[in-house]
Amino acid sequence: MTQPHIDQLASGLLAQIAAFADAVDGADWDTPVPTCPEWPLRVLVGHLGQAPRWAAGIVRGGSPDGIPDPHEAVPPQNWRAWLLAGASELVEAVRAIGPGTPVWTLTGPGPASFWLRQAAHDTSVHAVDAALLAGVPYALEPDLAADAVTQCLELLSSPVAETLKPAVAALRGAGSIGLRPSEGAIEGWVITRTQTGVSWRRGPGRADVTVTGAVEDLLLVLMRRLPPQCVAIDGDGQLFDHWLAHSAL
Questions:
Q1: Is the dihedral of CA 18, 24, 30, 33 positive or negative?
Q2: 221 near 243, Cβ under 8 Å?
Q3: CA-to-CA distance for 205 and 221, rounded, in angstroms?
Q4: What gap in Å lies between CA 61 and CA 58, rounded to an integer?
Q5: pLDDT tens, position by position, 12-56
Q6: d(CA 84, CA 202)
Q7: Which of 135, 157, 217, 237 is the most exposed place for a label (fewest CB within 10 A)?
Q8: What pLDDT, on a 0 to 100 scale, did the predictor assign at position 1?
Q9: Are the C-beta atoms of 209 and 234 separated by less than 8 Å?
Q10: Does the model's pTM come out above 0.85?
Q11: Are 31 and 133 within 8 A, CB to CB?
């Protein structure tokens, strides 16, 4: 499967930011978000307003002067419109410069679409955070959920992964993990731990532990939003537990 088209990423981002806003409408912003540890809802709203605007500035050629602190964000009274406007600003910035135009990214020079892809998947996961907090349903597009898994593995296998998150160094070692979507049309992944870091590939293959479930559930377990009991685990469960404990970015 190739990376989703910019139109799919854009529509996914805008749909999920709207879903987030619907889920938290009327909620107490001081409420802790259980699946987003140490962040009250106020900070999560701040993050989803800040992050796409920061990314849009990078896409337009701005200097990445450090990741903004969501604790410092001050959402306006019309916070819903603020969230939607931030997401739209990023979409417009990527379209204006062209999705393939090289820009600064977290892992080195990359296409401007990197930031739209990052925002779409980050927002999707946080929309689930909001839905779980509010006790309302959520839904992720299977193709976008699959691409979110791929993006996660791309980041974890990047040469700069351990710089971004030192705990990732604990993933060095031995053993393999197979991720098998129950949707037949979606390819799985095989992750291999080596002494120099993480490698992975798409497609079938034997693994020391195989994790099977709907691709949405696979993503949310990998993102530690759902417990491992929500998927089927066959093989070395301790290996998968270790992965979950050290793969947060």
A1: negative
A2: no
A3: 21
A4: 5
A5: 999 999 999 999 999 999 999 999 988 999 999 999 999 999 999
A6: 34
A7: 135
A8: 45
A9: yes
A10: yes
A11: yes
Cα–Cα distance for residue pair 154/131, rounded to 1 Å = 27
What does 73-90 look like in DSSP terms, one character per residue? ----SSHHHHHHHHHHHH
Helices (H), 135-187: 142-156, 161-164
Query: For residues 6 and 99, is the Cβ–Cβ distance under 8 A?
Result: yes
Mean pLDDT (whole number) for 122-149: 97
Dump the DSSP string for 39-81: -BHHHHHHHHHHHHHHHHHHHTT----S---GGG----SSHHH
Which residues on neighbouring strands pair with residue 196, listed in sequence order? none
Q: How far apart are CA 159 and CA 146, in angstroms?
A: 22
Question: Position of tokens 């053993």?
Answer: 175
Q: Which helix (H) or strand (E) is 198 found in, with range?
A: strand 197-202
**Environment class of 41 (CB within 10 Å of its CB; exposed 0-12, middle 13-18, buried 19+):** buried
End-to-end CA distance of the chain: 23
CB distance 51 to 119 below 8 Å: yes
Contacts of 21 (CB under 8 A, 6+ apart): 79, 80, 83, 84
Instruction: Give CB contacts under 8 A, 24+ apart, made by 170-173.
Output: 170/242, 170/245, 170/246, 171/197, 171/198, 171/243, 171/246, 171/247, 172/196, 172/197, 172/198
Cα separation, 52 vs 225, whole angstroms: 22
